[in-house]
Amino acid sequence: MRPLAQLDIGRRQITLEVVSLPIRTEPVADHLGGLDPETLIHAFRIMHLSRRLDDREITLKRQNRIFFQISGAGHEAVQVAAALALRPGQDWIYPYYRDRALCLALGVTPLEMLLQAVGAAADPASGGRQMPSHWGSPKLNIVTSSSPTGTQFAQAAGCAEAGRYLNKDSGAITLVTSGEGATSEGEFWEALNIACLERLPLVFLVEDNGYAISVPVEVQTAGGNVSQLVSGFPGLFRQEVDGLDFLASHRAMSAAARYCREGNGPALVHAHVIRLLSHSLSDDERLYKTAAERAFEAERDPVLTFPRWLANQGLLDRQRLQLVTHEVEEEVQQATEQALRAAPPARESALVNLYSPKQASASTQPQFEGPPATMVDAINRTLAEEMRRDSMIVVFGEDVADSSREENLCEVKGKGGVFKATAGLQREFGSERCFNTPIAEASIVGRAIGMATRGLKPVPEIQFLDYIWPAMMQIRNELATFRWRSNGGFSCPVVIRVPIGGYLNGGAIYHSQSGEVEFTHIPGLRVVMPSNALDACGLLRTALRSDDPVLFLEHKKLYREPYNRSPHPGKDYLIPFGKARVVKTGANLTVVTYGAIVQKSLQAALQVEKRNPHASIEVIDLRSLSPYDWEAIRASVAKTSRAIVAHEDTISWGYGAEIAARISSELFDMLDAPVRRVGALDTWVGYHPQLEGAILPQVEDLAREMDSLLAY
Ligand SMILES: Cc1ncc(C[n+]2csc(CCOP(=O)(O)OP(=O)(O)O)c2C)c(N)n1
Ligand SMILES: [Mg+2]
Q1: pLDDT given for residue 17 in this prediction
Q2: Average pLDDT over residues 320-348
Q3: Is the CB of 98 under 6 A from ligand 1?
């Protein structure tokens, strides 16, 4: 035995000792898992490069030249094996933050990684917006990744599903990776359910390092083994493997990929790995891992055992090893120097790529035809017209299809949504473009995000706003951040349709909620709310042609009101986003409102004007709640000098608070009176109509406030 080489890895100086054998040059041997020697050496090179990049980042963090570090040390073998099972540029990848070696193997360069670590403007994954190891590469189909553990699963399912519409026979698969800790998230199970229901070409790779920060797996996962837990999922191909063993990992990943490519359904590879360092540089694993445990893990380090094995097989000699490690050192050094010279993002760039540069600003004149139709009919018709125009539009959600059992369609009328907004879409466009989903709101939105990534135009419905909350993580942390966090590399033009609001008599707490302000507070998300059939048609069409994510709020009470009907304005009728409508002109009081309060404000204004000859009230329907039409508000208040902001939602911390604050702040000199607000009491909507009436704002409340402000 003599030393093969000195390897300088992480906190240790390692001497590799091997029995020196003659180098083998013969072709692919079975015991090499069908891989040729050069591929194996290449695999080692990537593993080593990944480790040296982690080491370099740790140094840079200690020097305060980067601001965060999370290491992939111990995970490299299975990651490189996974990459070898993929077809770069064709398959889609949703990586986890430890996947440095996977991303290197797929083609992300060390320089690109270090540009992200230093937060450079030239960081191709995020332009200095995301922490290191938040991978993303449009050209390599590595989908921009985020920090929440678990959101990736449903998106990956949607991405795999999109292949079905785009190119059924491409054999492309999607890989989604995670730690074992993240498999505790509900979305993991939701995604597995969808993947098995739809037999999706989706490989789940669980890199089980036994810890989620400090929480050991036996406390995380019932029975301590996730692949045993998932054994009941029908059609799921499972592999449990030693993720430190490169060849075994390659076998498992290849088999899983093949199973998916052949259209058999999803696969899950459960790879046991080790986490050689603390969770991140903000953690100290010595607080919860014993010295013996750490020493045992260090001995099994794949970046050491793999070259040792290569040498023992006669595939790697001292000279080649030195050459590879020298090249890696050079590459890391050059990339570091270049990254440290890179310019940071300009301060003025903070808002770039929050919304699409393609503004949804087109507007067309209505070409009216036919009798007046209700708002829900206008929505239904607009959906159908746009689905005819754009084959990328898919509609899904709970109960949105006419009948999931297609054979029933010859006998039954069909459901088509609990409010009938999607009636007939499945019948006309088929079950591939309008279908029911499991009751899993997070996944409904997550799936839509994954579909949009591949160019579909998903239009999910959340049945009631009251039940949107499981999807909040996907909406706030994913949907709205996609474009910004990838600095324009990815976009997410999903339209989420949501019935909202009260005044239904009997809707009570869970069928009356407003809550739009929870969403208007989200940068990057467009929030739109029509108050009548004509606006619903024009705004929905704009949403369906928009490049940004849109939350389209449909007031349930307004769906079938007689007063807000409209003849069809034509199949190209568009209303631009961010443009309010002056519903009624007036001279000495402005009411800024939207949704169900538009008509109530109008009624109140007419009452007040009738009994007060000096009153002249302007009512503005915002229509777009975010971004909204400040110019319309400003112009009106400049004229009237008095303003009320009125909405159905609760007063405190509400939509009106923002508008009132801005009017007070920017238009103070124009005001003759304080800005007032009208909204619901700060409580839940009660079941009994008398209770509901007392809680939600009524015409009398609006009239009273108008009188009082005019008298101020
Ligand atoms: C939804 C969510 N909850 C909590 C966190 C904080 N967090 C980040 S990583 C992590 C542990 C994840 O463990 P595991 O999935 O096993 O991955 P590992 O870090 O071990 O590779 C936690 C709790 C988060 N990022 N997202
Ligand atoms: Mg873990």
Answers
A1: 47
A2: 97
A3: yes
**pLDDT above 50 (res 428):** yes
Residue 6: the pLDDT is: 58
**Residue 179 in contact with ligand 1 by CB distance below 6 A:** yes
Catalytic residue among 250, 272, 279, 511: 511
Distance, CA 185 to ligand 1 centroid (Å)? 10
CA–CA dist 309, 347 (Å, integer)? 50
With a 6 Å cutoff on the Cβ, whether 210 touches ligand 1 is no
Catalytic, 75? Answer no
Which CATH number applies to 369-568? 3.40.50.970
Pocket test for ligand 1, best of 70, 145, 213 (most atoms within 8 A of CB): 213
pLDDT digits (tens, 9 = 90+) for 249-265: 999 999 999 999 999 99
Atom of ligand 1 nearest to the CA of 70: 19
- pLDDT of 485 > 90? The answer is yes
Q: Which residues contact 368 (CB under 8 A, 6 or more apart)?
A: 566, 567, 568, 569, 570
Query: 133 CA to middle of ligand 2, Å?
Result: 16
CA–CA gap between residue 668 and residue 582 (Å, rounded): 22
Is the CB of 213 inside a 6 Å radius of any atom of ligand 1?
A: yes
pLDDT digits (tens, 9 = 90+) for 180-195: 999 999 999 999 999 9
Indicate whether 30 pLDDT > 70. Answer: no
CATH 3.40.50.970 residue ranges of the chain are 2-342, 369-568
Is beta strand 566-568 parallel, antiparallel or unpaired with respect to 369-373?
antiparallel
**Residues 355-367, mean pLDDT to the nearest whole number:** 88
| Chain segment 373-407, per-residue pLDDT in tens | 999 999 999 999 999 999 999 999 999 999 999 99
Average pLDDT rounded to a whole number, residues 424-448 = 98
Of the chain, the percentage scoring pLDDT greater than 70 comes to 96
Both structure tokens of 405:
């059992």
Domain(s) of CATH 3.40.50.920: residues in the chain? 581-710
512 ligand 1 Cβ < 6 A: no
User: Which of the four pLDDT bands, split at 50, 70 and 90, describes residue 359?
Assistant: confident
The whole-number pLDDT of residue 2 equals 47
Residue 4: predicted pLDDT: 53
Residue 169 pLDDT class (50, 70, 90 cuts): confident
Considering the chain, what is the average pLDDT of its residues? 95
Q: Is 211 in the pocket of ligand 1 (CB under 6 A)?
A: yes
Nearest atom in ligand 1 to 178's CA:
15
Ligand 1 atom nearest to 149, measured from its CA: 26
Closest residue CA from atom 17 of ligand 1: 179
Q: Closest ligand 1 atom, CA of 183?
A: 15
Give me the pLDDT at residue 8, please.
58
3 state DSSP class of 207: strand
Indicate the helix (H) or strand (E) that contains 152.
Answer: helix 151-166
CA of 213 relative to ligand 1 center, distance in Å = 7
Does 571 have pLDDT greater than 70? yes
Contacts 24+ apart (CB under 8 A), 107-110: 107/137, 107/140, 108/135, 108/137, 108/140, 108/142, 109/335, 110/49, 110/53, 110/331, 110/332, 110/335
Looking at domain 2-342, its CATH architecture is 3-Layer(aba) Sandwich (3.40)
Pairing of strands 267-272, 237-242: parallel
pLDDT of residue 251: 97
Among the four given CATH numbers 3.40.50.920, 2.30.33.40, 3.40.30.10, 1.25.40.10, the one describing domain 581-710: 3.40.50.920
* Ligand 1 close to Cβ of residue 676 (< 6 A): no
Question: Which ligand is closest in space to the CA of residue 70?
Answer: 1
**Pairwise CA distance, residues 437 & 401, whole Å:** 9
**Residue bearing the CA closest to ligand 1, atom 25:** 148
